[in-house]
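My current task is to audit a protein record that another person submitted. Please read both lines and tell me whether the tokens look consistent with the sequence. Do not assume that whoever made the record got everything right. I have pasted the whole thing underneath without changing anything:

===
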Amino acid sequence: MSNPSSDVLLDRMMSLHPKVIDLVLDRVWRLLENLDHPERKLPPVIHVAGTNGKGSTVAMLRAGLERAGAKCHVYTSPHLVRFHERIRLAGDLISEHELSALLDECLAANGPDPITYFEITTVAALLAFSRNSADWTLLEVGLGGRLDATNVVEQPAACVITPVSIDHEQFLGDSLAKIAGEKAGILKSGVPAIIGPQKDEALDVIEERAARIGAPLLVHGQHWHVTQERDRLVYQDETGLRDLPLPNLHGAHQLMNAGMALAVLRHLKQPEAALTAAVTQADWPARMQRLRDHSFARRYPEFDLWLDGGHNPDAGQALARALADLPDRPTYLVCGMLNTKDVTGYLRPLAKTAKALYAVAIPGAAATLPAEDTAKAAATVGMRTDVVPDVASALSHIETECPTARVLICGSLYLAGSVLSQAQSV
């Protein structure tokens, strides 16, 4: 008898715990024990935490390692269109057959006990990785670090902490120091950690944790540096300097993400070709992604159409810088956000670059912020706003006002996923 589809199994997993997020590791350890500890049988792990830039850094690491001939298991979240995007086995997205079989096995091993959706699907990914040959495992933290379901590997090959900022305060704490403490929870004794650019308050906490447990650090600004000089990326560490192309992922913030990936690759003694590939061949959708082969782009060929899933104040600042670096053009935002986010903080830096904002609700997202509330927040930071039923309506309104506009669809990875799922629609 064939397994139920992964969609059916994933829906069942949503009902196993009353809370979507519940940060403890007891349930994960129990299930891992029931499955004979797959987390102990993984290829060498690179564990990546932080607030912004985790996914882009993982994408660059994957590009570099694969160019060097390595095969990489990769675990990221959330997905944009299909759950399968979260799990790559030796470079390829997990198949429907293998995913369904794994989920079924994990459900059976868990039995009637409570466990969150993220916890059980993370265990499924680790189980898949333990059974398939690869050279590296790239694990992206889902939320926080210390109590995240990915934080079960005793001795990773390396850890990474990307820039830490205020986000998910209801789970991680109401100060930068508290949030940094949660991120620093992935550090392990004797395991080198590459630390991206940090505010002093966050760096102090990370360095204190590292000193206490004996985790050697490679810190931006101390042990490695990355800058842009003309149209080149210049990376420097204790072993020398590398002159490389600028990242193919758009936006000035990708320079620092590239720096973190390069610091890891240099620490792992990867060849020069891996360094170049990391900055020129990474693929990471919905991070300042230009929409070219998409139904919206075909319908509005004169638009300069972009998509981004960033959703916190630091992401808003990075987006504002990225837009400012583009050739001058009237810019309009189509924005939908979750009700757990700092909407005003996200939109404030974008107010100077946007001519107007069209607010939408995120289709199918239970935690979507009502479009009217997004519009109110935008108005408080000085944006001209309008509320529309969906992205398609927003684009139609913008075309009427400015047929050659630059349009950024933004505010949430869930909105980005909804847009990408419409890629083939008429």
